[in-house]
Prior knowledge:
The protein is an alpha/beta fold. Helix content is 51%, strand content 15%. α13 (210-222) links the parallel β7 (204-207) and β8. The chain is globular, with a radius of gyration of 18 Å.
Amino acid sequence: MKVNFFVTCLGDTVKAEVAKKTVQLLEQLECEVIFPERQGCCGQPALNSGYIEKSKPAMKSMIEAFEINDYPIVTPAGSCAASVKKYPHYLEDEPEWAARAQKVADRLFELTQFVVRQLGVENVGARLKGKGVYHPSCSLIRKLGVREEPLILLNNVEGLELLPIDNQETCCGFGGTFSVKMSEISGEMVTEKVQHISAVKPDFLIGADISCLLNIGGRISREGQPIKVMHIVDVLMSR
């Protein structure tokens, strides 16, 4: 199967290994990966701050970038996927663009969603010995409805034991610009999240959104907790 890869800003500039391993995983699953070079920022930071009109040029540029073919679009970031899937709503006062946005949104999948639901793969042959906590990001479970797919893949990782924690689906406090505008509240939220994680003494914290992992991982580091922070694709590519 041919697929387009939507790298996202964080994957491009902060966590290049996540982007690299996503491509490697897709190729391992016999996908031919295409990288539309015109892609850029999906506009999420500005959109979340309410700058809809000023974000429209970025949205239209993204739509044009992924109109080069009709193949599925795969990204390792639920938050960016959720942002693009709202393009038709943001562009509803421009029907032609809204229709084009809908066609792009319909082809867009978060990585674990694509692997499990589109490729029908539940075991990628990964091996990682230890105990882990999975953090279900708000973008995945609330905006995209992707709840079971990451767990299906993680439960098939040889040697990995997933541990439940209190308030597992509670927000980590990042929320994009929320963590800047409401920094004190955000700080308390991530502190509580790390308390619940550290209480079960895991070897790994695993998530499918880079932004959440940066937020939680920063707190874990500041507290000196011996917990390795891993994007789910890091786990799925472990051997």
